[in-house]
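Private note to self, pasted from the team thread so I don't lose it. Backbone tokens:
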């Protein structure tokens, strides 16, 4: 077992599938969130999207491989129903959605897919190397495993309440079983090599790694981000507040973090950026 993996392989998605989370995920697109992969796709490819959520990226993939097919996989039946509805509204016939858990074994045979993709899945995972091995198993020789995973979050100014907020999110995510909630992106290459992929040869022909940033700097963008987190962490709908308390934080500390987020959004110098690691590993 990797030293970066938890001995408890039972996965817990700390953010669950609250309406606010699913709505945010539904805004993702292949053009924005899988841009590094798109130049490598061919119209006949068969693609697996692991942790597909409400299926917005999955559906985009289906439109890009009209002679191929796409499978979206997720652990949540209710979210898969949303994905099916979304794909149906787009009139896509070459995409299907199945329930499954990468850590319990993908419900596919060996060498079935040209591309296996994840977006913000390993960052919440208790055993990322095991997950990559399983994704490698179902990828055809010459195919690709492509991942886009979160890394460090940078906030300015460094307000006291924001320090509390970041500690809450980190500790709660770790308590849910994730092993690298703020460092997954930078570890993708190391995890891939441990999973049996070839190392970077210098030209990116076997293992390519890159990075991108998502930022919230304009006033309206900052407010939207703050409103999301205030409602998600401070409210009751998502169940996240109880998870934060189970991780050791008091109601007073939660309110301190929520207040800090509001103060950050209103600060004239507020700035936020999220570093994201990207990887394509060839089989």
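Design output:
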């Amino acid at each position: 077992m990797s030293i970066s993996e938890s001995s408890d392989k039972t996965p817990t998605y700390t953010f669950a599938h609250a309406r606010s989370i699913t709505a945010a995920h539904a805004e993702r697109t292949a053009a924005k969130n899988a841009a590094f992969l798109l130049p490598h796709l061919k119209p006949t490819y068969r693609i697996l999207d692991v942790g597909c959520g409400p299926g917005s990226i999955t559906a985009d993939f289906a439109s890009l491989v009209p002679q191929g097919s796409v499978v979206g996989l997720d652990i949540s039946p209710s979210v898969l129903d949303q994905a099916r509805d979304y794909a149906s509204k787009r009139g896509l016939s070459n995409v299907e959605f199945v329930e499954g858990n990468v850590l319990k074994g993908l419900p596919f045979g060996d060498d079935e897919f040209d591309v296996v993709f994840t977006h913000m899945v390993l960052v919440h995972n208790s055993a990322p190397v095991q997950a990559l091995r399983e994704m490698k198993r179902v990828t055809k020789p010459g195919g690709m495993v492509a991942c886009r995973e979160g890394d460090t979050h940078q906030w300015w100014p460094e307000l006291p309440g924001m320090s509390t907020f970041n500690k809450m999110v980190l500790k709660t995510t770790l308590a849910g079983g994730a092993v690298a909630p703020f460092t997954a992106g930078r570890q993708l290459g190391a995890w891939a090599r441990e999973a049996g992929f070839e190392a970077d040869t210098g030209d990116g022909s076997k293992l390519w790694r890159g990075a991108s940033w998502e930022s919230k700097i304009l006033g309206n963008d900052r407010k939207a981000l703050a409103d999301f987190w205030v409602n998600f962490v401070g409210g009751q709908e998502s169940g996240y507040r109880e998870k934060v308390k189970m991780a050791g934080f008091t109601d007073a500390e939660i309110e301190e973090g929520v207040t800090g987020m509001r103060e950050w959004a209103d600060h004239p110098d507020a700035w936020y950026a999220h570093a994201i690691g990207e990887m394509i590993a060839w089989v």
